[in-house]
Specification:
5% helix
């Protein structure tokens, strides 16, 4: 039973009377009988309100199952980068806190409707640990394909009761617990045999505008004939067709939002589902994510965990450490670490400009503050031209900001240039994690600080690692300068059907400048690439690229996209060098080096040969799969 308003008022006096007398550890078990496990939201809110914001405290929950609902939750209009802004409710509003820990004691926190479980805002020393996050009803719709007749183009689906939906005037809509999505929108097909996005899932996509108007005819309870168009082929019988709503409306309930905070630790937390990203951090300083499990619940029929990235870091600094985690079945990446470009739209004083936030989901974003170092970026080449320092930053509205600098801007920038905040980039350590079965990539890396990616296992439908910067769509900045990718396992990724390599270095420059690459100093060594596909590495506009001492296996897990199975290390076009197979001389991989990449190659010294990777006949360290072809690269 949900508490009424009178219950909330009563809780204020009951909670305050106990919490004010205690210090250090607050055991929720001491309040037994004073809260309703079917809606803990009012109790948690009043408890937090009773604790001074600067008082170090640890809240410990006795192991159990606790439900949280939005009706009596704290709320406000809230901006979240890479999400949809709006009036949001929060179960644990941790605002202005200093040294607070939430220990769930192994509990399950079950959420209902549109609510953000944890807000960490303007806080320092926040620890979240030992609990599971899930939703009673997910924000997705998952339908089993029961009929797929290519000749008649007839498709029939079955939707389990767990997924809230309705049919109105022949249109399929998503609806549950106080929310609805009238446009099924973005969609993808999963394969229950692999528990992953389906092989060549891109073939089964319902494109725009068709996915805005999904028509169905009921044929039996929970079963419908589907009237729509798929881009290339009908999804196979037995696969799961999933929807998550329309872009700019379906990212409303991330599990954890950390903003303008420092010293954040998320440890031993499990996220089975949320309506957005598992953890989204912006303008956060030093964030550690350890043993975060973004995974399906055992025994659940669901195919989807988070409806966006498992983790995401925008303009953070210090160190972002992600280790010993498992990320699976997300509808986007395991992590994306990047900055943001804004575009100069006007020069209003000798030392002042107006800039626009162009990213479609960054309205209201705090781009810069006093003292920040700003690079002026050429919009065509994405290369820095000058550096300025911020004297004052003013928000005009959600899309425009006014920046005043400590020096005149004349001769340093023009209207149309990009601005990049160099003061807000983190070092990244991504180690000993597992990424599997998700839509999109494994990780995106865009930071000029030191990056180490080691000891991980990657298997995603697109590229495992993507380096990218652009000023034409996502406006994500952060050309890399020091990246080490070592001792990882890349297992049969890029199976979604599109032409993606396992590692993709792909800055979106409209014009490249000879001798001035966008990305620099990427070392890829000691990794295992097990692949059915031919594309291993594709790169452009990069200097100091090293690929050495890696093992390549050809597997039989999926049918190759092309009959000519030559794993390639393709850095643009032109110069091709064959790799020798460690065994029979068949299916010889190729390495392709473009002039752009090779311009900055260093001479070979011992084992340190930049990018040139003739192979040898050595046996690799571990046995290949039965029937697999194995290669070993070395300098």
């Amino acid at each position: 039973m949900k508490p009424r308003l009178g219950t909330v008022i009563l809780l204020v006096s009951m909670v305050c009377g106990t919490a004010s007398a205690r210090t250090g550890v607050i055991d929720i078990a001491d309040y037994k009988g004073r809260y309703d496990t079917q809606d803990m939201t009012p109790f948690v809110y009043t408890l937090l309100e009773s604790i001074p914001a600067d008082k170090p405290v640890k809240l410990v929950f006795p192991e159990g199952t606790y439900h949280f609902r939005p009706e009596f939750a704290a709320g406000k209009y809230h901006c979240i980068t890479n999400h949809d802004n709006g009036y949001r409710h929060f179960a644990f509003p941790l605002t202005g806190r200093r040294n607070i820990e939430i220990d769930g004691g192994g509990s399950e926190f079950i959420f209902h409707g549109r609510i953000i479980p944890f807000l960490i805002e303007d806080s320092h020393g926040v620890t979240l640990r030992n609990f599971t996050v899930d939703w009673e009803v997910p924000f997705t719709l998952e339908a089993k394909v029961t009929t797929a007749d290519a000749e008649t183009q007839r498709v029939e689906i079955e939707i389990p009761d767990e997924f809230g939906h309705a049919v109105e005037n022949g249109k399929l809509i998503m609806r549950a617990e106080g929310w609805e999505e009238r446009i099924p929108g973005e969609n993808i097909v999963f394969d229950p045999r692999t528990m992953a996005t389906a092989y060549r899932s891109d073939d089964y996509y319902i494109p725009k505008p068709d996915n805005f108007d999904i028509r169905v005819t009921p044929t039996a309870p929970g079963r419908y004939e589907l009237h729509t168009r798929f881009v290339r082929a009908l999804p196979p019988v037995g696969t799961i067709l999933t929807f998550k709503g329309v872009f700019t409306q379906n990212r409303h309930s991330p599990a954890i939002h950390a903003t303008a905070s420092s010293g954040v630790l998320v440890e031993d937390v499990t996220i089975h589902h949320c309506g957005g990203m598992g953890l989204i951090a912006e303008k956060a300083d030093n964030v550690t994510v350890r043993r975060l499990q973004v995974v399906l619940r055992k025994g659940s029929p669901r195919m989807i965990t988070t409806t966006a990235d498992a983790t995401h870091f925008c303009n953070c600094r210090g160190t972002v450490l992600i280790e010993e985690c498992v990320f699976e079945n997300m509808l986007d990446d395991a992590t994306n670490v990047h900055g943001s470009y804004v575009r100069v739209t006007g020069i209003t004083a000798p030392d002042q400009v107006i800039a626009r936030i162009n990213h479609p989901q960054q309205a209201g974003y705090e781009f810069a503050g006093k003292g920040d170092e700003i690079d002026v970026v050429d919009a065509e080449t994405l290369l820095a031209k000058h550096t300025l320092r911020v004297k004052k930053s003013e928000r005009i509205n959600a899309h425009y900001i006014r920046l005043t600098f400590t020096a005149p801007v004349e001769g340093r920038l023009t209207v149309g240039d990009g601005l990049e905040n160099m003061s807000w980039y983190p070092e990244l350590i991504f180690r000993n994690n597992v990424v599997r079965n998700n839509r999109a990539r494994s990780i995106l890396v865009s930071t000029p600080r030191k990056v180490v990616v080691e000891g991980n296992t990657f298997s995603s439908m697109m590229s495992a690692i993507l380096f990218e910067g652009d000023m034409d769509h996502w406006y994500e900045s952060g050309a890399v300068r020091d990246v080490t990718i070592r001792n990882n396992r890349f297992l049969d990724g890029t199976y979604g059907g599109a032409d993606f390599p396992t590692i993709f270095i792909n800055p979106h420059q409209k014009k490249e400048v000879p001798g001035h690459p966008y990305e620099r100093n990427i070392t890829i060594e000691g990794n295992l690439f097990r692949t059915f596909n031919e594309q291993l590495l594709r790169a452009k506009s990069v200097g100091g690229l090293i690929f050495r001492d890696n093992t390549i296996e050809l597997s039989e897990k999926y049918k190759p996209y092309n009959d000519d199975r030559h794993p390639q290390l393709a850095a643009g076009r032109h110069q091709k060098q064959p790799l020798q197979e460690a065994g029979e001389n068949q299916h010889r991989p190729e390495i392709t080096v473009s002039e752009t990449v090779s311009e900055n190659r260093r001479p070979c010294k011992g084992d340190a040969c930049c990018f040139s990777v003739p192979a040898d006949q050595r046996e690799s360290d571990s046995p290949p799969l039965p029937g697999a072809k194995r290669f070993r690269t070395t300098s």
